[in-house]
Amino acid sequence: MILPGLIYFLIFKYLPMWGMVIAFQDYIAFLGVTGSKWVGFKHFVNFFNDPDFMLLFRNTILLALYNLFFFFPLPILIALMLNELRNQILKRWVQSLIYIPHFMSWVVISGIVYILLTPEAGIVNELIASMGWNKINFLASSDWFRSLIILEVIWRETGWGTIIFLAALAGVDPQLYEASRIDGAGRMRQLWHITLPCIRSTIVILLILRLGNFMDSGFEQIFLMMNAMNREVAEVFDTYVYTYGIVQGQFSYSTAVGLFKSLIALILVIGANYAAKKFGEEGIY
């Protein structure tokens, strides 16, 4: 049963790692990996000396922190709220409703956002104008870009993120709640002293895994929302790799950038796992 999964990871995750060697070469497609010239850390040095490096690093880190602090807790909160619903029909209806956005592509979501926020005839701007205020060009404003990105992520992924937490909540022993009610504990006491401690290990593991994708800002979403007016805050490592790797064909340079990003994620995962073990949690290994 696990064979298809193993084959998938072998073909699409582990075998492509061999391609990382071109980060240390002046890779030429006609010569291949074995025939291209070895240049060591040349591309890394060029990347770190690039005037855009600090801009890319700042934008990527800020979006990652926004995701971590504003998005990550929401699936936990929604799962706890759904767990308190006693009407099963209402619970399933709400779950289905909040799962739907996950199945929409970023192209569709970006189109919806454009329709809502465009200054010409967007519903939001029409509402603002009807109140006597000036219209806001959300889509071309660098001040609104990060907020829009995080709101899109929250709307699309929060419901889907509740699945694992709801599964963890289903595994909490009901006898613990019965014993707490006998002792006079209310719903908030049960939540704080039983529910959260019982799913704490799940929260920690998912947080560690989230840190593994800390530097992944989401290329498709940002690429669709980025324009000349907000590029200063929108350009991140993912879009930078696309520009230099796919558009300009600098495969070695873009691979070096991607490898740097992956090394940061690896360090974060190892550090978070170590910290989790220090605090008595299981960690991921």
From TrEMBL:
InterPro entries: MetI-like, MetI-like_sf. Belongs to the binding-protein-dependent transport system permease family. It comes from Paenibacillus sepulcri. Keywords: Membrane, Transmembrane, Transmembrane helix, Transport. It is found in: Cell membrane; Membrane. Its main location: membrane. Residues 57-272 form the ABC transmembrane type-1 domain. Pfam families: BPD_transp_1. PANTHER family: POLYGALACTURONAN_RHAMNOGALACTURONAN TRANSPORT SYSTEM PERMEASE PROTEIN YTEP, PROTEIN LPLB. The chain crosses the membrane at residues 61-82, 103-124, 144-170, 191-209, 251-276. This is Sugar ABC transporter permease. It is a multi-pass membrane protein.
